[in-house]
Amino acid sequence: MKEKLRIRLAQISDYTMLANLGRKAFYEAFGEFNDAADMQAYLDLAFNPEAIKLQLQDPDITYLVADLGNEPVGYAKLKRNSAPPELKDVNCIQLERIYTLKAFFGKHVGKALMIECIEIAKREKRKSIWLSVWQENKRAIDFYLLWKFKVIGFKQFVIGNEVNDDFVMAKNLDEL
Predict the structure, then answer these.
(1) Strand spans (E) along 52-125
(2) What is the rounded radius of gyration, in angstroms, for the C-alpha atoms of the chain?
(3) Does residue 96 register a pLDDT over 70?
(4) Which structural domains are found in the chain, ordered by start?
């Protein structure tokens, strides 16, 4: 029997799992492009279990988990009250993270997470959903373009001593 993909809201008890899942997915995607010490420092900061536990208690942050059977294989993080300068006067929500473990690429995990993120944004009557993505991450950019995100600006993302150029992309939710 084929395992079913399920998207659910993360619970506070998921904090360690989310930290481990985020670390693994981020490392799989970007480990080869960064200095090992810089990468380790970033992973320790960005995927600190206690910090994620606090975020799970923040009403402005929502984590969604993609479970395939009983195995978590991806997640998304939405952040409210966060806007790039290009959207400062727009009622928007940030898709701060959307990760799928490499072994589950092509299994529609990202699609299922994106559908739920857009549904949450629409229920909250948001006008736009935005994100930032490394300009060299062609796979992710192609995914976002399929969802009709458009480049609206640029920002920098720092990992240790490495400064990466990111696109700021947004999707106008009035166009759905």
Answers:
(1) 61-68, 71-79, 92-100
(2) 16
(3) yes
(4) 5-175 (3.40.630.30)
